[in-house]
TrEMBL record:
The gene is pgl. Residues 14-224 form the Glucosamine/galactosamine-6-phosphate isomerase domain. This is 6-phosphogluconolactonase. It catalyses: 6-phospho-D-glucono-1,5-lactone + H2O = 6-phospho-D-gluconate + H(+). Its EC number is 3.1.1.31. It comes from Dyella telluris.
Amino acid sequence: MSDSANVTTHDFPDGHALAAALAEQIADRLRAGIAERGHALLAVSGGSTPKRFFEQLSRQSLDWAKVQVTLVDERWVPESNERSNAAMVKAMLLQHDATAAQFVPLYSDAPTPEAGLVTVRARLASLALPFDAVILGMGNDGHTASFFPGGDRLPEALDLNNAARVLPMRAPGAGEPRITFTLSALLDTRALFLHIEGEAKRQLLADAQQGAGEAVNFPVRSVLTQPRVPVSVYWCP
Ligand SMILES: O=C(O)[C@H](O)[C@@H](O)[C@H](O)[C@H](O)COP(=O)(O)O
């Protein structure tokens, strides 16, 4: 993985050091948003990688009552399901000082994301966009948010001219149906981070950046090559 005009990498010796640095970076951005506009907006990823970072961020001292937190994507399952990203964010991030933050979920109790879309879109109208920070993760298949290889609405989700904020997404590698912010909506941010851990993901990201072999089709490549927002990659072994 190498730096390019739009991608800067920050390497850390271990997950603890990365989590501490990323938590400070994000907290600074939230504090700046509150100081400048009276509120701040953060979009985070689910999955397993962010847990340690969430724990660190939850202990950062700032006026959390003025912070809205949402997810970049969600699995279409209720919070009682262990696959719920919302449940993970509530357990790991919305604790300690961060309990006061307002969480804006992407799931409604409709049976499918298609059926829940109107409700979720109405809810998202309350978001004070642009985001102060968006933090993406990446899966071993090159997906980010719910931009999965073979996703049924992948071209729409990656279309930088798409005005939709969120879309349903179904893909062979996604498990359950998903709902995801579109790339265009996620790029409506003051700062963009990609948090990955481990050698395998480092190599995969390097391949995606170079467009090497099948990696030319990895959806994360759309994030790395877009011209709108610089990408800060946070990595540790
Ligand atoms: O709901 C999700 O699955 C995520 O938001 C997803 O985009 C995640 O960032 C990657 O799958 C990485 O997940 P891990 O951190 O578990 O590898």
